[in-house]
Amino acid sequence: MADGHDARRLDAALRTRLAAHLQRFADDITGVRSVVLASVDGFALVPAAGTHGNGERLAAMTSAMLALAAAVGRELALGELEVLMLEAGEGKVLMLALPATPAPLLLMTACDARCVIGKVLWSAKECGRNIMAELSGSRADPQGNTGLDNQRGATWQDSTIP
């Protein structure tokens, strides 16, 4: 993967919009402790406000895990790494690769034991799509939602269908 040097040049207005997507993701999932958008070389670019934990540390640790997981994927001929999940006794970590240009990005979240990893993954992918749309200059979701409607599982698309 390319390094994230170009990604660190995000302007302030874009960082604010991306932070709003991350914050909605963090607010929608019970048990989220930390959410950060990072470069693949381990630099936190945009943390979600109000989440517990250190975004810089999460970015650096997950970047190291990514390198190991990518090596395993290459050895087993599994293709490009898309998602990395870690589950421990007291919580979970999820890393989602976002194929942004000019450099890929990582959406990372750390959750406590209350979170349901399937819901975290689904919501992270929705947030990732919204981030990618924001980076490309379009909006995936006209209301700016991450996809969950009060954790009932209904998406914003469901609410727009007559």
Structure description:
By secondary structure, the chain is α+β, with helices and mostly antiparallel strands. It has one domain: Beta-Lactamase. Helix 1 packs antiparallel against helix 3.
Could you name the ranges where pLDDT drops below 50 across 5 or more consecutive residues?
A: 1-7, 144-162
Number of helices: 4
Tell me the overall shape: globular
Number of domains: 1
Tell me which CATH architecture applies here: 2-Layer Sandwich
Query: How many strands in all?
Result: 5
Beta-strand content: 15-25%
What is the helix fraction of residues, given as a range? 25-40%
Summary keywords:
21% strand; alpha+beta; Beta-Lactamase; five-stranded antiparallel β-sheet; 162 residues; disordered N terminus
Element layout with pairings:
Blueprint: H1 12-28, E1 32-39, E2 44-47, H2 55-75, E3 83-88, E4 91-98, E5 105-112, H3 117-136, H4 156-160
Antiparallel strand pairs: 1-2, 1-5, 3-4, 4-5
Helix pairs in contact: 1-3
Task: Give a brief rundown of this model.
It contains 4 helices and 5 strands, in the order αββαβββαα.
